[in-house]
Known about the structure:
The complex is a heterodimer.
Chain A: E1 4-5, E2 13-22, E3 25-31, H1 35-41, E4 48-49, E5 56-57, E6 70-74, E7 79-84, E8 95-98, H2 124-129, H3 135-147, E9 162-174, H4 178-189, E10 194-197, H5 214-225, E11 230-233, E12 236-242, E13 246-252, E14 267-279, E15 283-285, E16 298-300, H6 301-311, E17 313-314, E18 319-323, H7 332-338, E19 342-347, H8 354-363, E20 366-369, E21 371-377, E22 384-391, E23 396-397, E24 402-405, E25 408-412, E26 415-417, H9 420-424, E27 430-432, E28 437-439, E29 447-449, H10 459-476, E30 511-513, E31 518-519, H11 520-528, H12 534-541, H13 554-565, H14 569-572, H15 586-590, H16 607-612, E32 615-620, E33 623-629, H17 636-649, E34 651-655, E35 660-665, H18 669-676, E36 689-695, E37 701-711, E38 714-719, H19 724-738, E39 745-748, E40 753-759, H20 763-770, E41 786-790, E42 796-800, E43 809-815, H21 819-830, E44 835-837, H22 840-850, H23 888-891, E45 896-903, E46 914-916, E47 929-937, E48 942-950, E49 959-964, E50 969-976, H24 986-989
Parallel strand pairs in A: 2-8, 9-10, 9-14, 10-11, 14-29, 16-25, 18-19, 18-25, 19-20, 34-44
Antiparallel strand pairs in A: 1-17, 2-3, 4-5, 6-7, 6-8, 12-13, 13-14, 15-26, 21-22, 22-23, 22-24, 27-28, 30-31, 32-33, 34-40, 35-38, 35-39, 36-37, 37-38, 40-43, 41-42, 42-43, 45-48, 45-50, 46-47, 46-49, 47-48, 49-50
Helix pairs in contact in A: 4-5, 4-10, 11-13, 17-22, 20-21
Chain B: E1 2-5, E2 9-12, E3 17-21, H1 34-42, E4 50-56, E5 64-70, E6 76-81
Antiparallel strand pairs in B: 1-2, 3-4, 4-5, 5-6
Amino acid sequence: MSGFRLDSGGQIDRNQPRTFTFDGRKVSGFAGDTLASALLANGQTLFGRSFKYHRPRGLMSVGSEEPNALVTLTGPDTHEPNARATMVEVVDGLNASSQNRWPSLSVDLLSANQIGGPMLQAGFYYKTFMGPTRKAWRFYERFIRRAAGLGKAAQKPDPDRYEKINSFADLLVVGGGLAGLTAALKAAEKGARVILIDEHARFGGYHRGDPREQDTINSLLERIQAFDNATILPRTTCFGQYDCSTFGLVERVTAHNPTETEFAPCERLHVLRVRHAILATGAIERPLVFPGNDAPGVMLADAIRAYALRFGVSAGKNIVLFTSHDGAYRQLSALQDLGVPINAIVDTRTTISDIAMAQVAATGMQLITGHAVTRVHGYHGIKRVSVAPFDPYTSKINGKERAIECDCLGMSGGWTPSIHLTSQMGGVPEWDSTLHTVLPGKSNGTWSVCGSVAGYFDRDDTIASAETMVEEVLRKLSLSRARKAVTHPEKQDVLNVGPVWSIKGIGGKAFVDFQHDVTADDITIAHQEGFLSVEHLKRYTTLGMGTDQGKLSNINGLALMAEARGLDIPTVGTTRFRPPYTPVSFGALAADARGGHLQPTRRTAMHYWHLDAGAEMIDAGLWKRPRVYRRGSEDLEQAYIREARMTRQSIGIVDVSTLGKINVQGPDAAQFLDRVYSNGFAKLPVGKARYGLMLREDGIVYDDGTTWRLDDTNFLMTTTTAQAAAVLEHMELYLSVHWPDLKVHLTSVTDQWAGAAVAGPKVREMLQIAIPETDFDNEAFPFMAIRHGKTSQGIPVMMCRLSFSGEMAYEVYTPARFGLALWEELHSAGKEMDLVSYGTEALDTLRIEKGHVVNSELNGRTTAEMVGMGAMASKKTPYIGSAMKDRPAFKDRRRHQLVGLVSKSDECVLIGSHLVRNPALKTPCLSLGHVTSATYSPALEKYVALALLENGQELIGRDLYATFPMKGIHVAVEVVDPCFFDKDGERMRG
Amino acid sequence: MLIPCPHCGDRDVSEYSYLGDATIKRPNQEKANPHKWETFVYNRQNPRGPHKELWQHNGGCRLIVEITRDTISHEILSMKATGPHKTGLGK
Lengths: 990, 91
Ligand SMILES: [Zn+2]
């Protein structure tokens, strides 16, 4: 209990109290507070438990780099884990709870993990669990999963609404500090379309909340707002850069936003394309690595300044700063004036600059130079710290420790430019040995940097760098015609960093990565075990792999690795940053593409008739098709058996509107089809249809269907439902690229025609009633013939006598707008004859009984020979696949061949079963083939199946087993011809 | 990535489908030897840098364009239409 609300200061509205709960306790704050600032003002020190050791952890930062203060936010229907308390704005009724602790935050039994400290050191998971058997992992997994981790994932669907927009601009400015604001204003003045974003609710960056800068910040913002060509987006994070200057931005519209509006989405994803990006992403303060640096109450020094200036909160009642550079001395007197009790400053350097010295003198605080903090005392909060003389050359303690009373310790080892986006854009980070930090490196010309990310840590230089850089960009975009040479300001070393990477010589865990519990010792161990590359180091120790992506740990980790290897930091190199900069919700990425809106739904003209008739629908690609029409208490099997049986007894009708239909037109259409199909089409007479088999260039079967010659130069091709789009694309490629000389035009007409297939012994009787003017006599309307006609109600129809079921059958098509009327008319015509509607299950049963193949058999690995259609192939003219279809391996006798299987018991054969001679063989054993389709056959009154079997044709008559070891099911089967029923086709030819 | 289409202008890559390497020529049906077919069906160069390839604007006008794309930067260096429709289109 050390933080408290100051009497004045901050960008909060003290007249607007806000009440929320944290771990069930009521807490109050003010409008303008974040969850972190409000809790800090209420004296909360403990914010969470660490990932691996369950060590108590406090607030570390004031921004999105926060590694410790992660909370779960819950609403009546919502659950958001791992929200950073520093980024959540306080609203009435907010319900936050701490994570990764059990049973409670202050009493965490799982913190016993740290007693076995060395057990969980670097590589622990790999060494213990990834051994040859992984037995240990299997045993320990459930304990470890409970003990280590972050927040729990949501268990219910997210009720919030998200949206996505595509947007375009000349310039994206990331970061709304003084540099970003300056750049955005100057670009807007020159007429550039600018989008300025900042991840926080308010602009100002580092200077946000500083009363001396507030007028400048407000005035810049107002002037930008005056331009129609400028867009300002607060609460918006640029999480990633993608090819061709495309950026992903997430705008938190109502999420964590107190000014919530009813119709706004929770978050909005912007996919933004720009001509150039200006990155004014600032810098993040670096922790110091010393024992106990993770204790609650130890935080980044600048966060102490920021909590006072932005939120009017003092982080402690007796604050000590620990630093190695001049930056931590900035504004010390301003803080003292606000009432922030900073009483001592410990500096590892022996000398400090005059400006820093003046700050110390003005405040009268104790200055202890040439010392380091060696220990932090107190478990759930700091009681005091130990300091000792420090040798910066060896990083070792060289004198006696003494104690300093305090309840809050601010640490600062320097500042690291936020180069995440520049690194994503291919900028190779460069080490600056004067500033002791990384800089973004060389741009590829699509981005520029200014302000502190570019190494300008002086306030005036920041603004100057933005002005010169934006001028260069505007010239590049031809938006400025100025000619005078642009001179960028010099990078001044205003921080005077005396680099300290770790405090050595005393025991205790000194953390480098707070979120993943990676210590300085872990890095030494990784080095001792031979991990030299920084990329390997990162993966082995999990350094920088948490939700904070190593924002605080990266440079310290690299420096310690360099130290261990005895190299300088640039030689060791840096890891490359990858998106996202901060975690992005799945909701934002999916936006409205969820549920039924994930992809389009295609419905046939008869769709709602099917639903009214009680059809159970099934997805066939984007289409919805009736699966079965159940009657009474029928189960699925009973329903399809009835539908198939009645089709063979009287008439069945099935909606075939979903078949792909392509109009192939032009003087060379017949020649084109000859080349596209493996069998000939040139000689197909007008008014007739033919079954065609398409191969790929490699000789494998691609698709099949019937093609109807409507007149000399006009064909209607049908494809399988699944391959319709692919077949069109395939043929378009040949016409555009390989055979541009052919005069053929392709048009997809799938949606233009509705179709019904009618089949069964009484079908002619029924059609004669429905379509009275057409002669359905066997000679007048022969097999594979096409006829045009109209129904008794005048609906135009185009028919072809072809059969998939093996029955006497016709496909009847009509323009889609008549689809439902035709369907109903056919039903009323067949009413007296027991006409039955059937779905895809019965369709499958009927075709399996006939041994017809579909995509279960034409699976991208089967040749025409394998499915018994080798003889169909044209011998005279070449076609797609003809050159490669006769390769020796395709002719191998052991290659699979299509066969039928009949179950020798009352058991069904499972699709995916393997065919073996002896089911008692231990798996893995040699499989002779596998089952591709299976059904109960009402015609045979047996369970039957189709299978692809090695040398199958010669095994007809043999007994095998269809075995499914995962379910322990082994069915005795007899191998038969794939056509089970009416092999001579008497029923369909009539 | 934006891909230029002579009918529709610069369009997002999600409107296109990739139809493969444009430098591969289909062998003459009647004369080619098996080696040529093998090259046509299976062998691709996967170059680092400029690459000629075919993209179909099947979320738009369905035209197949031949573009030269830098496989590192994704910069589109050139574009032309293919097929009988190409007259007067493209650069
Ligand atoms: Zn187009």
